[in-house]
Description:
With 204 residues, the chain is of the alpha+beta class.
Amino acid sequence: MTRGSSPWCNVFSTDDWENFEYARDLLHYYRAGPGNPYAPTMGWLWLNRTTELLLHPSNEGDVFFSFVHDGDIAPMLAALNVFDQPDDLPTTHIARDRRWRTSQVMPMGGRIILERLTCESPGRYQVDNPANGEPPSSKSRFIRININDGIVPLPDCNSGPDASCPLSQFAERTRLRGEEAGVFEDICGLENWGNGGITFLKQE
C-alpha cells in the first residue's frame, strides 16, 4: 500500500494472499513463461538480437531501451533460462520453494538489464574471442544479468566478475538456446516471415 494499510486488507487471510499469488504465478508461468513450450521460441528473437548488439558496439550509443508488456518479459526470461524450475509448477498445491514468483520476476515496472562489463583479464578471465567481435587485449567483456535491481547469475555461466558470464560464452549460450527453442517461423507455421528475425533492435 503506497499510503499505509487499509482495513479492507483484513478481509483476506494470509492463506488467501498466498493462494492468489500462486494463482498468478501459475498463470504467467504456463501462459508465456518457462511452462509454455513456445515461450523460449518467442523470447529468443529478442535475446538473439540483443546479443548481437552486445557483441558489436554501435555508434548509436551505449544504452538501448526496449519497452514491452509483462507478457513479453515472460518469454524473454524463458529464453534466458534464469528462472526455470526443475519440475513444472504443480496445480494441485503451492510449490513454496519455487523460483518463479511473478511479483519478483516481472512486477509492475519490472526491468531486465543486460550489462556489458569490460574488465581487466589477469589469467582466468582471458576469454576474448575475435570470431565473436572481441579483439584480443588485456581486457575481456562480460554480461551480467540485472533483474529488478538484483543480480541474477546464469545457472550455467557465472564464472566472471560478480557472477557475470564471459561475453563469448554468452553468445554461444544464446546460439545453443536458439537450437533448443527451434526456428520461430517453423514452430509458428509462418510462410512469409521475411529474413527470419527482427530488425527493430538492429543498429546500422
